[in-house]
Amino acid sequence: MGGPAAQKMATVGGLVDLQAEAHKEAFEQGLAEGREVGRAEVRAQVERLAGMFYDLAKPFEVLDTEVERELLTLAMALARQIVRRELKADPSQIIGIIREAIAALPVAAREVRVHLHPEDAAVVRQHLAPTESERAWTMVEDPVMARGGCQIITATSRVDARLETRLGAILSELLGTERHIDGARG
Does the global pTM surpass 0.85? Predict the structure, then answer.
């Protein structure tokens, strides 16, 4: 039975096996390539999605900064109005501000000039009589200075006790930052 017909059958059976094996290898190779292509597509989609999320978040960062700046501006405006109202009710508060600012000067400071708004200068003249324990100083009327603040200037130093500077320092302390409100004058 092992004649040419059996050999032919074995060859056909071998071919079928070879064909099945080749098919299996091609299938596995195709499957591996397909998976790799699929992974690459998923990675590309994830990267696109991450980019879209980043692009979506970016405007919120800008918006957060703008909202923060607007809130600070509003807080400064409210604080200015409250201080102005307080000064109208008790204009002599400027005297305490001047005394604190002068106390911040170095002991050896000479030629002390206190720059004040003219209306504040009138209040100081009316209510403050210099005492012997206080350092001598000259009052300078400065119409550009906002009410409720002053600048103390000597030959060697300066104390900025303007309203805007004091409010900015308070806000910075409250916010835990070292920010100063730019262009806030008034």
Answer: no
Dump pLDDT digits (tens) for 88-107. Answer: 777 777 888 888 888 888 88
> Are 37 and 112 in the same domain?
no
CB 101 within 8 A of CB 159: yes
Q: Which position has the token pair 């999605």?
A: 49
CB–CB of 120/150 below 8 Å? yes
- 96 in the same domain as 74: no
The single-letter DSSP state of residue 38 is: H
Between strands 113-116 and 138-141, the pairing is: parallel
Q: Cα(67)–Cα(47) distance, rounded to whole angstroms? A: 30
- The residue out of 60, 89, 118 marking a domain boundary is 89
Asked if 142 and 117 touch (Cβ cutoff 8 Å), the reply is yes
By residue range, what is the domain housing residue 81? 1-89
Nearest to 175 by CA among 71, 103, 88: 71
